[in-house]
Amino acid sequence: EAIEQAIGDDGQVLDSASPTLARLRHEVRVAFNRLQERLQSMIHSSTLAAALQEPIITVRNGRYVIPVKASHRREVRGLVHDQSGSGATLYIEPLAIVELNNRWRELQSAEAEEVQRILGTLSEQVGGTVSAIVSTVNTLATLDLAFALARYAIATRSTAPEIVDWRPNDPPSPEPPLRLIRARHPLLPPDKVVPIDLWLGGTFSILLITGPNTGGKTVALKTTGLLALMAQAGMQIPADQPSRLPVFQYIFADIGDEQSIEQSLSTFSSHMANIIRVLQTLTEAQSLPSAPADQALFDDRRPAALVLFDELGAGTDPVEGSALARAIIGRLLELGVLAVATTHYPELKAFAYATPGVENASVEFDIETLAPTYRLSIGVPGRSNALAIAARLGLDPALIEQARSFIDRNEAQVEDLLAGIQRERAAAAEELRRAEELRADAEKYRDRLAAEQQAFAAEREVALA
User: Which among 111, 225, 342, 393 is least surrounded, fewest beta carbons within 10 Å?
Assistant: First the structure.
């Protein structure tokens, strides 16, 4: 109440803050009016008309003055406070208004002192309740954050994920610790983003995504990392239930091209520098001393970590790049982390297929429209579409066949096998959809028949009664 009585909406101290302030401000206005009246009479006086440069009132050094011609200096008795750049005009405070100016300034000073006294008193009162004020502000901030999170969750159609306790040393579980159902990138338009299903843990801990450029590999990578961070920040995530996520001690991401002219880093060098830091950090974390009892959540020699690598081993010779990628994936397996990596190297498809704990995945590509579908398929490696795209665009079939003859027979058979698997998966998905529709129809007929039977039984009982 004291603040509302003393401080206005614009932050200025009101006259009602104290009787003394109200009196001083009234006297300031009276003194100012008297000063202005006296100055107005002087500049419109015929006696000084010839001496004035122009009939105006101005301020110099906080004092009201009038502009006087330098040649008529002696006609106006007063104090010179300033002069023009040319020296033709002097700004003089006439002796007749010196006392009025002094009185006005004195009252202004007294008013300022009273304002400071009032603010000091209010500050002391506020200081006496600082604990309650801080607690209230913190509570309001907490509520504001909760409402903001709720509004964002509604806007992005988010749900609350299940948070699970997972460590690399835990025995394998049939239910993966990280499962995202119809997950969507939170920064992409909701009406355009294609949801993905992704899981890690259980039968495999590393997912290797292959597929065409601009097909959605990096988006899947970023979606996984962003949703993991959102969940650990207490936010709901743009995914359907029952999605689940563990609490990670580390989340690492090496995404994008970070060439540096200043540091003489190429694409390969910049990626490799980041990967080295990630591996060193994870290795050193295993040698840390045990955590205190109150920090048991992170008391593990193999910390729970999520690693995201984009275009693993890219930017160098394909043979050496793929060899490095396989070695890095092997080290990540040893460290027990959950990881998602994208790549173009075909050798890694076979490596993922033959290595326990590593699983292939791919982003689909529509040959008919020559456009990616952005759908993620786990369990099927991505296949090269270069020849199919070239044929679709109208390249001479003879050249297509000649190019196909240059491909190793085993690789060609693998590509044909992948194409067949993808066709079979699409057909199986369509059959599953039709089966779900038939099941839904059967359930509706069953429910309707049950309702009719109950109605018939009721009518029969009424008739027999």
Answer: 393
Whole-number pLDDT of residue 263: 47
**Residues 6+ away with beta carbon under 8 Å from 127:** none
Q: Which amino acid is at 314?
A: A
Q: For residue 306, which of 352, 249, 360, 357 has the smallest C-alpha distance?
A: 249
pLDDT category at 419 given cuts 50, 70, 90 is low
The Cα–Cα gap between 238 and 196 comes to 11
Which residue segments constitute the domains of the chain, with CATH numbers given?
2-128 (1.10.1420.10), 159-406 (3.40.50.300)
Q: List the beta bridge partners of residue 339.
A: 206, 307
The answer to whether 230 touches 237, Cβ cutoff 8 Å, is: yes
The string of pLDDT tens digits covering residues 379-391 is 877 766 677 778 7
In the DSSP assignment, the letter for residue 11 is S
Tell me the pLDDT tens digit for each residue of 285-327: 877 665 555 555 555 557 889 999 988 887 778 888 889 999 9
Task: Give the distance between the most distant pair of CA atoms in the chain.
Answer: 130
